[in-house]
């Protein structure tokens, strides 16, 4: 009998978004973690550690299959073990070829039907050392899970355990989402469904956009830009956060600085009643420890009037107040319930609805409770759970994570706070947001982070 890992509703929505993007020629919902290394990895020992990783987390060696009964995707765990070349890819590059080669990789889809959903790419040749790129389909897990996978791979490399003695961590047996929903009465589920169908409780639509909506010819070329702040500049950002926004979290200072940069880039004049929209992402592993190969992040909506965007202190205070209101209203539970409700149809049907909204400010997705386009898709990640000074025997110089943007608004910004550094990665769909615009936005963002006023 076939063995499966069944995605939770959050995963199903990523599967639908991935299918929708592929239908317009995009590579889908991919995610990256980059490790800058000071030296070269031992490929034979790395391959052995990966074989152990597939035993600990079997879904990393799985293939995707569609259930004929529900139309939902699921991970088939008893697939043929992958050949080494399906997982580890080595690329010989010069220093000036590195960025374009990774950009090419960013534009390649991951075939998780015939191949495994997670790959390692080693770019070898730059004098500083290897660049390791771990990339995976976002349908599999979020960035926090990606960091955990790298730490587990490093542990297996260092400890060289007997592979035949390794056992699964049990991700495929977890049922956290169903257990959480079991605490919600059916009366509340029915009332939530009725509210969604009637349009009640749905957001007021898209926030102010840096780029106008496009209804056709989205284009397929993704670009990215990276800014790596030194430890000294990262300390300056923390000092500025304490000075400018003393009552807010440092992450809210980061969000407020990003909004100020976006506001400076916006075409004028802006609507008087306009607002910027973004999400504050909550990692549910704090409440459901142990989950790795799942999407366990809750997205809580944040709105900031355009008239406040220049004032970082007020923006940070507004974000904090809205988060307190979300906590009081239990928005996270309602969001989880919405996810469960809207992912009941076959995934292909949900993908068609998402695809219909690409490049528009229409309402079909809003009617079933999906997210409308954000003004600022901003992700913030912290360091590894335990410091990772070396990876598989090689010193780690720096690392950061990011994801591919969606067609509307056409760009994304990811901030990675490591143990002693801060990195900013911007990605864009060039036909929607040109690389020059993205680069200017990222540079203004970094300037805002370093501005003490």
Index terms:
6-stranded mixed beta sheet, single chain, 453 residues, 14 helices, alpha+beta, globular, 4-stranded mixed beta sheet
Give an account of the 3D structure.
This protein has 453 residues and is an alpha+beta fold. The chain contains 14 helices and 15 strands. It has helices spanning 9-23, 43-56, 84-87, 98-106, 143-159, 176-182, 186-198, 231-244, 250-265, 312-329, 331-342, 347-357, 364-367, 435-450; strands at 4-5, 30-38, 63-66, 73-76, 88-92, 118-124, 131-137, 222-229, 275-283, 297-305, 378-381, 390-391, 394-403, 411-417, 422-429. Strands 5-6-7-2-13-12 form a six-stranded mixed β-sheet, sandwiched between helices. A hairpin with a 6-residue loop joins β3 (63-66) and β4. α2 (43-56) crosses α5 (143-159), α9 (250-265) packs across α10 (312-329) and α9 crosses α14 (435-450).
In short:
By secondary structure, this protein is α+β, with helices and mostly antiparallel strands. It has helices at residues 9-23, 43-56, 84-87, 98-106, 143-159, 176-182, 186-198, 231-244, 250-265, 312-329, 331-342, 347-357, 364-367, 435-450, and strands at 4-5, 30-38, 63-66, 73-76, 88-92, 118-124, 131-137, 222-229, 275-283, 297-305, 378-381, 390-391, 394-403, 411-417, 422-429.
Using the CA coordinates, give the radius of gyration: 22 Å
With strands numbered from the N-terminus, the spatial order across the biggest sheet is 5-6-7-2-13-12
User: How much strand content do the residues show?
Assistant: 15-25%
Instruction: Give the N-to-C terminal Cα separation.
Output: 64 Å
Kindly report the average pLDDT value: 90
What is the overall silhouette? globular
- What's the helical proportion of residues? 25-40%
Helical stretch tally: 14
Give me the count of strands: 15
Low-confidence regions: none
Major sheet summary line: 6 strands, mixed
- Which structural class best describes the helix and strand composition? alpha+beta
Topology pattern, helix = H, strand = E: EHEHEEHEHEEHHHEHHEEHHHHEEEEEH
